[in-house]
Amino acid sequence: MATFRKRGKYWEYRVKYTDSAGKQLVASHGGYRLKSSAQDAAEAVEDDLKRGGDPSKQDVLLLDYWDQWAEAYRINGKSINTVYRYKLFRKHLKSRFDGRKLNSIRPIEWQKFINDFAAGKDRKEKTTRKRPRERSKDIVTKMNSYVRGMVKAAINERILFSDFTFGTKTSGVRSSGKVKVLDSRDFAKVKAIAIERASYRNIGALAVYIGSMTGMRISEVLALTWPDIDTKLCVIHVTRSWDHLYGTGFKPTKTDSSVRDIEISPSVIELLNKIHQEQAASYLRTGYRDEDQMIMRDPRHNVITDSACNKALHVIQNKAGIPEDKQITFHGLRHSHVSYLISKGVDIYYISKRLGHSDVTITMKVYGHLLDSQRKQEAHKLSLIHISEPTRPERMSYA
């Protein structure tokens, strides 16, 4: 039962209760100008106790509970990327809700936060922009869904009795859903310039050439070692990835199905043999020994970065005369490789295995518009064939 007392001008309530461990505790709060306000607050605490709530948790801060929840349910044993995302979202939550109790957040406050987050109003732009750069709808939706998961856990623990994320509307920049690729002529130019420039002193160009000829992810290209290259069968064995984001070294491939063999042309083998000889000669001169036998080491014996690969690709595209608005990133080489294979009529099931997709439906989902475009081209060819076929002359009647 609650008791009340007046301390100066303000009222305070005290509610005695027993926790789950059988310990006698007291929940109290003061600062109420009217006794009736203190009575209402005490009644809410008692109702909470009847529903199995724990008043000692009512003062938990949003950020503190986020840390507890993420550690217990989300980031334990997860990838570095996943852990980084939770830390990044925490940073954004802190910018708005630092010092706020979890149970003090109102739905309208959360909606306002999501609106501002989508609009990019918290960004610190290095360049002068008249308007903040909007975030993608995908990342905004992730932010809201992650916090919703935390809120559901808090409701289960009787810390919250309502979901302040319920009904939240998310916005942001929508992706077109179409992958950006080079057309066949520009793609051919990129491959020609890349193979011409690739050398031990220009490993970035080598990475570009391998990416364009295999469709491998940048992390897979950077992880290549000389034993991964089967020069007799003309095959690359993809068995692991390279952590180019955090520099921790080798890591597993993106998915189990990403472990695969990729057939390559003799031109790739020839170029790799040439660079292997250049690398071996350099190591012999300097006395360097590479236990990992990495392919993508520069003359300073460092595995090149993803930024170096993208820079090399940018230089090659400029050399090819490709306009800035049509240029692609290294990941675009993967898409352009697929586009090239589709244009040559290569079976989609083979393409799917070559990319390391677990199911052909993933390939269809990502590259469906390229397949549709190819179908339209084939249909157009068929229509031309029908037009060019001679018509059968009508039988003349002499009756």
What does this molecule look like?
- A 3-stranded antiparallel β-sheet has the order 1-2-3, with helices on one face. It has a 3-stranded antiparallel β-sheet with strand order 4-5-8, with no helix packed on it. Strands 6-7 form a two-stranded antiparallel sheet.
- The chain has 399 residues and is mainly alpha-helical.
- The chain is 49% helix and 10% strand.
- It has helices spanning 35-50, 62-74, 80-97, 107-119, 137-156, 184-197, 203-214, 218-222, 266-286, 306-319, 330-343, 348-355, 360-388; strands spanning 2-7, 10-18, 24-32, 229-230, 235-238, 241-243, 249-251, 260-263.
- Helix 2 packs antiparallel against helix 3 (80-97), helix 6 (184-197) crosses helix 10 (306-319) and helix 7 packs across helix 10.
Features:
399 residues, mainly alpha, 3-stranded antiparallel β-sheet, 13 helices
What would you say about this model in short?
The protein contains 13 helices and eight strands.
Biggest sheet descriptor: 3 strands, antiparallel
Identify the overall geometry.
Answer: elongated
**Radius of gyration of CA atoms, rounded to a whole number:** 31 Å
Order of adjacent strands in the largest pleated sheet: 1-2-3
The count of β-strands is 8
Structural class designation:
mainly alpha
Determine the strand fraction and express it as a percent band: 5-15%
**Whole-number mean pLDDT:** 87
CA distance, first residue to last residue: 116 Å
- The percent of residues in helical segments reads 40-55%
Order of helices and strands: EEEHHHHHHHHEEEEEHHHHH
Count of helical stretches: 13
pLDDT < 50 runs, ≥5 residues? 125-129
